[in-house]
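Hi, here's the filled form for the chain we discussed.

Project: internal
Contact: R.S.
Residues: 172
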Amino acid sequence: MPITLEAASTLSTTLVRVIKLIKGMRHHAPTPHPEVDASAYPVLFTIASGPKRVSELADCTHSDVSTVSRQASNLVSQGVATKVTDPDDGRVQLITLTPEGQALLEAVKDQRSQWFQSLLTDWTSEEVAEFTAYLDRFGDALEASRARALTRAPATGAPTGAPRTSTDPQEN
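And the returned structure, exactly as it came back:
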């Protein structure tokens, strides 16, 4: 049985509240690297899986190429990423992590884990596992919705009137 419009509205309101709280907390979180803005973390996490073109980074982080290009340039200038020549196409540069970038990534992961551990002190391990499973399921639904929207998109860009979606609340 599908959920009611009222239930969907309640969930939507709650989720928007949580996203705004997370976004607001970003400004108060300690920064492991003073010159790397938290808005570049999705790029950092994405290049951890291997070198990527800026256009691929933009696609993976659900951002526009100009924003990701700026973030990647900052990561390179701070020494946490570097540009390498694409072995398949010598005209293209790939962005990859440096050892300092890998250390920063680990620091960010540790910091986030400690923060979440402190947030969830009165939750059981089972509650956290159940909540994580629901979030994963919701994320899958968002990704599927995004994929459907992109297949309906005009050849020149994003679907008309479609909301910008992101699987990373830190981006919003």
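Let me know if anything looks off before we file it.
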